[in-house]
Structures are given as C-alpha cells and as structure tokens.
Amino acid sequence: MSRKTPKRLSAEDEALWRKVVAKATPLTKSRPKADPMQKRVVHEPEPKPAFVPRPFSVGETAQPKPSPTTKPNHAPTMDRKAFNRMKRGKLKPEGRIDLHGMTLAEAHPRLVRFVHGASADGKRLVLVITGKGRTRPDDEGPIPSRPGVLRRQVPDWLSRPPLSALVLEVTPASLRHGGDGAFYVYLRRAR
Questions:
Q1: CATH code assigned at 107
Q2: 66 pLDDT higher than 60
Q3: Which residue range forms the structural domain that includes residue 123?
Q4: Number of Cβ within a 10 Å radius of residue 153
C-alpha cells in the first residue's frame, strides 16, 4: 500500500491558517507553541515500563497490546509439546468453571477464586467457559454493545494481577472442550 504525499497549502491558505493559529488559545499553557506549517519530526520516546501507556500523537498508528489469545504465532511460555497437545484438546482439564450468563461483576470474583483454588490444589490445566455471546443482541439503548463481552474480557483478567502470577498460558479451547466459547488456562506449578 503506497502512501500519498500530503497536499501543500497555497500561499493564500497558508496566510489564512497563520491568522487562525495566532488567534487560537491553547487548551493547556504548558505546551510550547509549534508552527503547524513546519514539517513534524516524530522522535521515538524513551522506553517506559509496560504499565505506563505511551503517548499518542496525531498521525501515528495505534499499536494495541495483544492479549494472550490474539498473538498469532507467539512462542508459548510452556513446553511446546505440551502446548500443542493442549491446543489440540489432547490434555484433559483438571477443573472447569462455567461463567455463562454472568455479568462482568459476577464473573470476575468467581474467576479469581477459582484460579486461586485450582492453583492451591496443584492443578495445572483448567477450562474457563465463557460462552460465545449472544448471536443477536437485545439492545434497546442508543448504543449497541458487541456480543461476547466475557469472551473478550476473561483473557485480559488472566493477564493482569493477581491472576497473572498464577497463569502460565491462555489459549482458546479446542472444539471438544467448547471451541471459541472456552479457554484453556495452564497454571504455573505451586510453590
């Protein structure tokens, strides 16, 4: 895909733009005034810790943080042979929780209790069933919501504290264990 070069303003338009900029008041006074007609040079910011979001400037392409289940060809953090067996449904889950039909407020504490309990019991592979979400949302409000809110939220919960310390790998379940409506959660060894 080729990028088009931006159009240059005519001298008349540039003069008009400078008048508008001169009369505009900035939202914050801490930023120095920059000449909008100068070519903008984007410098990469210094690396920051993962929990601090990187500032976003206009014209920059957003890079979302991939969730554990959206990494296309990520190297598993567990043994590759066991990982492949797990993805194919050859490993039998030692525990399961069904979050079907729960709200986010109900599902999150139950998931946290379940994962902590499974880890304390020495279980390694558990199945978290979220369901696929409604096929036709019964939204009556002005803003429609996407179906499958638990299916999108559970991998994020598993990748954040307090569960991230217990979880080694999260991957969608095979069809034999629920397919897109469930996740395999491989836990770290209990210490």
A1: 3.30.1370.110
A2: no
A3: 80-134+147-187
A4: 17
